[in-house]
Every structure is written in C-alpha cells, then in structure tokens.
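Q: Fold this one first, please.
A: Sequence and structure below.
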Amino acid sequence: MAKRNLRFFAAHFMGKLAYTTQKLLKMNATYFPGDLAIKICPDYLARIGRPQTVIAVTGTNGKTTVCNLLIDILTKEGKQVMDNRAGSNTNSGIATALMKYSGLNGKCKKEIGILEVDERSSMKISPPIKPDYIVCTNLFRDSITRNAHPEFISGIIDKAVPQNTKMILNADDPISSRLAEANDRVYFAIDKLPSDKEAPDNIINDCQICPKCSGRLKYNYSRYHHIGNVYCENGDYQSPKADFLGKVDFQNNLLSMEIKEKEEKFELISNSVFNIYNQVTVIAVLTQLGISPDHI
C-alpha cells in the first residue's frame, strides 16, 4: 500500500462528505463519492486501507451470486466483511466501498473484503488493491460492442493480476482457466453430467482451437457453449485437473466433493448447472480461507 499523503486525505475527506450528503438525501451513494476521491487523488485505491484479506470475483456470469453467497456465509461465520454489494463494481464503486468501511485516517475496519469486479475494470482495480485471491467464474461473449471477444477480456484481466495473487479458476472453461499462468492457483469443476454431450452443438463457441498449437479442440464432454472438458487433437493441451471437483447427485439433491482426502456432501441449493458452478466456486473459495466443510 502506498503511503498516504495530503492529496489522499483531501480526497478521502471530500469523498466521505459526499457519501454522507448523498445518504442524507436518501441517494444510493455507491459511485459518486469514490469517483470524486479518484478525481482528486488518482491513486486513491493504492493508498486507501484494505482488509487483511481481499477476494476479488470477476467473470461474465455468476460473480454477483458468488459474492453474495460468500458475504452471507462469512458474516454468519462471524467474520467482519466489507463488500461492494450495494453498488458499482467499477473502480469508483470499489473506492466508495473501501471509503465507507474506513475511518478518517483511511484505515479499513474490516477483516475480509469480498469485491465484485467488472472484467474491463480489472486494470484499474487489481494492481492498486492487490487482492489475495482472484476468482474468475467464466468468460463468455457478453456485450459485443463493449467487450468484443472473451479472449480480449481475458487479456485485460491477465495483465492486471498481481504477481502474488492466488487464482481460483474454472477448469471447465478453456479461456478463463489459462489466466495468469505463472501464479499459484487452484481449480474447480463439475464432473460429467447425464445431460453432457460429446461435442458443442450450439452456433456460438468462443474456443475452438488449441491455445498452444492452434489444432482442433475436442471434448471428453461438452456442457454448454465452450464449457466442458477439452483436449487438443495433437496432444498439446487439455483441461487442467480440478482441485475441487463437484459430483452431482440430482436424485438425492446432493453435491459431493473431495476435500483434504475426505468426501464431503453438501445439499444442492439449486439444480441449475449455472448455480451448481456458483456453489462449487464458493466451496473452493471458503476452503482456501480455512473454513471447514461442516461450517460451509
């Protein structure tokens, strides 16, 4: 964290004043206070105090659900949690959230930070805040005019990852699973499902060639779009092995997972594959934080 200077304290005071004023006027106060602080002190995010542990969650789908589950579970676990759940997931929104949970001296009062991060805002957020963990749920085509191709967004996130940040990634996504390849990482995935196919059958598939040799990618099983377990026909690439592999029993509404060489069972909170991924992601994150399966 950069040393706090007079410009920082001026920005921090004006931001807090704006936050209080907007709240008195019954406004959301989720974006403007942080935006004002950054305009006064451009490196505000590098100087504001942060929680002891910061988890940044990004990706095309699922990041809000994952963040909400993490916030609720960690709060119930007795942790002091800061978040940007009520507001913007850009740099201004996160500046507002950090401002909200800090005193006039700029020191954060919370133990753990759960931050939802817009993919394109990663460059403005991850380098100054230096999250301890970055979670990427998946990367898909979103708004073409804003986000172009998922590989483009992957490149933005990849360049923003600090060297010491641990990655928590989706092994079933051949795009996001390759983020920050030099960093320490763990993978989550869902084991083969009865509904899986032998190959993608939808028109849109954002990852069709091997990232190593440009050969054709084939599937051990395909789930939807480019999500599934893949391998290169030339043997140059395959989906990474999952450290947290969810095995789904729809009949008994159970999700089982091996954690520390012991099979643990969790009740499914939803039978939607999208939400099963969210649940597996949350279990992986909480385990990294040292929360026991019984408490999860």
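Q: Good. Now the second chain.
A: Here it is, same layout.
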Amino acid sequence: MNYLVTYIALACALLASCYGNDASLAPRELYQSHLDLIASVEGYVNSPDKFVDGEWQEHWGDGALFGPLYDLSKHRLEVSPEHYARGIEALEANRARVLEAAPNLSAHLDDLETLSMSTLSLIESGQLVDDPEPYREAAAEMLIGLGSIAELYKDYLEIDAGDFAADSYGPTSLTAFLANVYLGYAQNYPEDNRDHHLERAGAILDRIHSKVWDDEQSVYLFAPGDERLMLYPNVTTMAALARAYQLTGEPRFWTRFKAAFEGVQALKDADGDHYHSPYSRESMGATDEDYTTHSSQNYFILALMTAYEVSGHSLYLDEIDAMLGFLKERLLVDGQILHHWIDGRAAAEPDPYIYCLGCNVQTLFILYRLAIL
C-alpha cells in the first residue's frame, strides 16, 4: 500500500509540474532572462534607416502591427518618450491607410494583409496610448467593410487576394485573423457594442471549426480538403480561441484550444525548442523536415501567452522560453533574428528570403508584453 501511495504522489507531482497553476518561471523573470536578446535586436532595428516617414522598412507586412506595439509597450514599461512618439507616428500612418481604404474595401483586397495589420494596430493600441479615440473610430470604419466581406464569404474567407490568402498562410489563418480583429476590438474598446463583437468573433470561430477541424489529426486544416499538417492555421486559430475564452469564459473555446495544442505536438522538433512550419519549406528548397520560420514561432508564442494568462499553466511559459531560446541560439546573427531555419542552418544566401524586420519587432513586442503581463 505504501508503494501505491508513493507512486500516486509522484504521479501527481509530475502532472503538477506540467499542468499545474504555479509557473516555474514568472513572465517578468522570463523577460529578464532574455534581456541579451532584446539588446541585440534593438541595436539593429533602432537604426534610423529602419523607420522612415511613419513606415518600418524590410518588414514584409508585420511591421505595420508589431512596430507600434513594440514601441508603445516599451514606453509602458520604461517610459521612453522617443519610442512613444515613434509608435504614434506609425499609428497615424496606419490610420490614414485604413481610412482611405475603408469606404471601398472591395477595391483594396490586394492590399488586405497590410490593411489587416494596420487595423489591428489601431485596435491593439487602445490600452497603450493617451488618446485612443481616433484609432477606435478608424478601426470601426474598417470593421464595417470587413463585416460585409465576412458576410459575403459566410464567415470563412476563401478569397484569392492579399498575401495572407495566397499559398503562404491560407484561408484558415486569414479567417482567424478576422476573428481576432473582433476580439481585440471588444477587449480594447468594450464600451462600443462589446457583446456584438464577441458574438461575431464566436460565430467566425465556430465556422472555422465546422469548416476545417480535422478530428483525426486534432488540428485545423490549412484549407478545406487540404489535409497537410500545418502550423500557421493552428497557431492563429489557437490565439483567437484562447482570447475568446479569456473574454467570454465559454468552455468550447478552451476545449478547442487544448485539442489543437495536442495536435500540433506532431510538428515539434525532437530538440524540443521549436516547431516545424512547412508552409514555405518547398519554396525555400529545404531537403529535410526540420524547417521552420521566425514568424511562425512568434505567432505560436502569442497564442501561448494568452493561454498562460487564462490558465496559469507553467507548460505554456516553458514552451515560450524554449522557443525564445531557439530564436536566440539558432537564428540570431549580428542583431538580426533571421527568417528561417533550414537544413541545419540559419537563413543565408542564396535563400529567397533572409530577414524580416517586422518579425524582429514582433519578438521585441512579445518580450515587453511578458514584462507587463
């Protein structure tokens, strides 16, 4: 009997270490453990030629969102007027872009990626700026057009326009981003019809689930009928699911998040510090399965951060720590976190893409958000 009690106690301790509510490393401590990564990346991206006339350079779309969020989050933590001013300058450029496109969004679908990122920047900055109202107003205008497009495509965006909807990321990822637009608006501007925006986000997430959930693999598919196991559609949907659960408390969202998290474990590398992301593996010429991109790890980390916020499970922070370590140890070269890991090396000539500044400021935003959770 004593052996049985001891066995049960050890088993409970093991489960607690993996799924318990006491994190092995607090978010602020995790941030502090990667201060060297921050210093290295900031030394490169803060060069004056990397931000010109309100626009981040070499950013491949992500900079429109994560550039200002990085600056504003850094200011929130450290009180940096220079970064706050640069964040506002970027937001103003995004606001002008959104207001120009919003009245006739269907004519701007080829620019849907940049418009989506710009709109999200206006939404997610709501709790980081002194006067959020101009950004709320612009985002609300864009939501009208996005709502019409969602209605046209019955809440699943099988649409051949914009970089998101091309071969790179696929319609499931694009639709998950749309859900996150509604969720972000509800969270940052709750006084403006919060229940409606949460309802719309829930309807979109339910549509994604009915359209592309693969019960056998326990993952969300890249697109209907496309049975490849892909990271992007899952981590983008997981980020929205965790946030939906955070804002509504509806159990189905958390249940789906946990199921997808288990499914994508099939993409985890044997080293345990990164996940394979094969969406651009063929176009980059990879010859083995150990291929992943900087941005895919970033988006997974964002999903895990919200999962930690709503659960307190140390498992999610441990995963974040491991992936940040991978970025630092494998992809960081001379202040640049490079675009991908391929054939046992970091991105390099003659690879088609080597570096994305937008992904680098996204990592900086992640680290500063950890510090202010």
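Q: Anything worth noting on the second one?
A: Residues 183 and 198 are 6 Å apart (CA to CA).
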